[in-house]
Automatic annotation (TrEMBL):
Origin: domain of life: Bacteria
Identification of the protein by name: Rpn family recombination-promoting nuclease/putative transposase
InterPro entries attached to this UniProt entry: RpnA (IPR010106)
Species per Swiss-Prot/TrEMBL record: Beggiatoa leptomitoformis
Pfam families reported for this sequence: PDDEXK_2
Amino acid sequence: MRVKDKYINPFTDFGFKKLFGSEPNKDLLIDFLNELLKKETGRILDLTYLPPEQLGRHNDARKAIFDIYCENEHGEKFIVELQKAKQNYFKDRSIYYSTFPIQQQAEKGEWSFKLNAIYTIGILDFVFDEDKEDHDVFHHEVQLIDKSTQKVFYDKLTYIYLEMPKFKKKEDELETHFDKWLYIIRNLENLTNRPPKLQEKVFSKLFEQAEIANYTEQEYADYEESLKVYRDLKNVIDTAFEEGVAEGIEKGKVAGLAEGIEKGKAEGLAEGIEKGKAETIRLTALQLKQAGVAIDVIAKVMGLTVDELDNLP
């Protein structure tokens, strides 16, 4: 086994599930979630992993496949998703995913409709297009808000997004335990040794689990394959989105100018962007399919159905 890096990349499927999605490392996920949520109702003491594949209520209904799905001792549900590359309608997908644990709480017969809290957490290896100019805010926590009072209307449905490329702190700038978690997630693959400032017990275990030299031949082969998929997927999708959106904007400008009026410009720009994005998704999915990437992986990342991918020309 010839090891090129010392630690695994946590943004790969293998790396993420190795560190956070396995029963022996459950304490790592618990510690991370406690630091992320800072729950007023108390710290999470235990978690139970639930099946990641969730079926709809009918045979022909669309299903969902979570990266990690678990619940704590109070019945609160946690969906933890790792998103490697930009995806059209990613926010829409995360809202859709949260409907599964909502519906699963329905009880037969007399039921008060009382729900346990649901947390959907996205650890993103990209920046939202609409947030590109904001270089400071990378931690987004979203709940239902009453716009007239600016107060939380419902506190049992929470969406948290971490735009990891925006986290720029260096080791000597780390102030909190949560800072250290983000630093590890952001930099683990590029570290050659455990940083002196990360001496907590939980990090001792994390670095031990992340060290590639400790893996069996099969684990190493699985990781290498996962790393290849991550790099290919991220490169193809990020490049395609940038080129597709740019092309869409240019087409929109031309269409708008041809109209000769402001309304035409606006409509042409919007139409051009949408057409550019749609064509980008189609071509990217086709490239990934031809490259041999698994259909279920393409469907998840691109927001398409398996049927749509099967019908690609």
